[in-house]
Task: structure prediction
Amino acid sequence: MGFVKLERQGHVALITIDRPEALNALNSQVLTDLDEVLDQVEADEESYVAVITGAGRSFVAGADIGEMKNFTSSDGKRFGVHGGNVFLKLENLSKPVIAAVNGFALGGGCELSMACDIRLASEKAKFGQPEVGLGITPGFGGTQRLPRIVGVSKAMELILTAKVIKADEALRIGLVSAVYPAEELLDKAMELANAICANAQIAVRESKRCIRMGLQADIHTGCAFEAEAFGVTCGTADKEEGMGAFLEKRSEKHFTNR
Result:
């Protein structure tokens, strides 16, 4: 894809937003390229986990203001629906997705990171939803995901002030789960991805599905999802292998994803 690169390293799909001359800003073509790459990752049975990062010194600096400047109301809605649908596809990918936020994650970039399951940041990363300072609202799910991640009060503060925060503040409020020196970030993301890859993948995917579905449901419905998933995994060969290794005190496990 022109603006989104995909390579597989073992069982990890590495996705790189590759428009560094524009700080990886999201225009319609970048979104289309990302949409197609996500389909490839979903279809690849050898890709267990995805890592998303940005080329150069930016993760994604935001949506492309040059493209948006002349939008009419209908243009804006179409663009929001396009990006929103791509990010929903990312969020609901059956495989876990880790954001390795290497630099600016502003506007659409912050929204992209929030659609991922786990966020790791470089010490150089900066996060924010600066849209109201441009006369617009977040358009790719920022008003919906940020309150779910950091709470309503902090999300209101960040969105309504257009404040940009550094990585240490993002860690403090729970927007990211770890911060690393820039030169270590991708290695740490790959290390985490491989730790997930080492587990039983049916169980990993069912666990992700339960978390995602449960966030949209009441506790009773969420627990019903979990009971169903638990039943599914109890019928797998991987359950037999995992429990067998435990009972036999074997450290090595040979999961077959069946």
Remarks:
- The chain has a mean pLDDT of 97.
- The first strand starts at residue 4 and ends at 9.
- The first helix runs from residue 28 to 43.
